[in-house]
Design a protein that fits this description.
The protein is α+β, with helices and mostly antiparallel strands and 168 residues long. The protein has one domain (5-160): 2-Layer Sandwich (Alpha-D-Glucose-1,6-Bisphosphate, Chain A, domain 4). It is built from 3 helices and 7 strands. It has helices spanning 17-24, 27-30, 131-160; strands at 5-13, 45-50, 61-68, 71-83, 87-97, 104-113, 116-125. The longest helix has 30 residues, at 131-160.
């Protein structure tokens, strides 16, 4: 599927690529920002459910669900690429039940840099298909996607405890 929109964030992390990949391969650590209420989610949060591979193998399924203003939200993702310690990509399956963003492909790339790593977190996405979702997507999708990749990158930078994101 071709996605018309793209956001990314790049950080330097004081951690070897192998060690960084191992930590980010744990989806609960990578996307911990989704499990906590925040201003960007207006107090909403998502919870995770995993198959037996826990998102650590190609074909593994990751399920997120939650509620926002009494609206049921959910998305199923499948890992489509996993090349330790360089790259991991996952993509939505079916039609996501999200408010401001539609189908997406998301992932990260790691390159050695000095004694640590350069990490790029990215999302390629579409707006929601529903009429209300399209309006919300026009208004908020890019802002939400940018927040999401920046939050993931900043959390990864905190793993190494130095060097905040370089393009935030």
């Amino acid at each position: 599927m071709a996605y018309p929109f793209h956001e990314s964030a790049t950080v330097e992390v004081a951690m070897a690529p192998e060690q960084l990949f191992e930590r980010l391969d744990d989806h609960t650590r990578l996307a911990a920002h989704m499990e906590k209420p925040s201003m960007m989610t207006l107090g909403g949060r998502m919870t995770y459910a995993f198959d037996e591979d826990k998102g650590r193998a190609v074909g593994s399924v990751i399920r997120m669900s939650g509620r926002f203003l009494d609206i049921s939200l959910g998305v199923d993702e499948v890992v489509t690429e996993r090349d330790p310690p360089r790259r991991k990509v996952w993509e939505t399956m079916g039609r996501p039940r999200l408010l401001v963003i539609g189908p997406y492909r998301m992932g990260f790339e790691i390159e050695p840099k000095g004694d640590g790593s350069a990490l790029r977190v990215f999302i390629d996405f579409s707006r929601p298909a529903s009429p209300d979702g399209r309006i919300l997507g026009i208004l908020f999708a890019r802002t939400y996607a940018r927040w999401c990749v920046r939050r993931m990158a900043a959390d990864a930078a905190d793993l190494g405890r130095i060097n905040r994101p370089t393009n935030l």
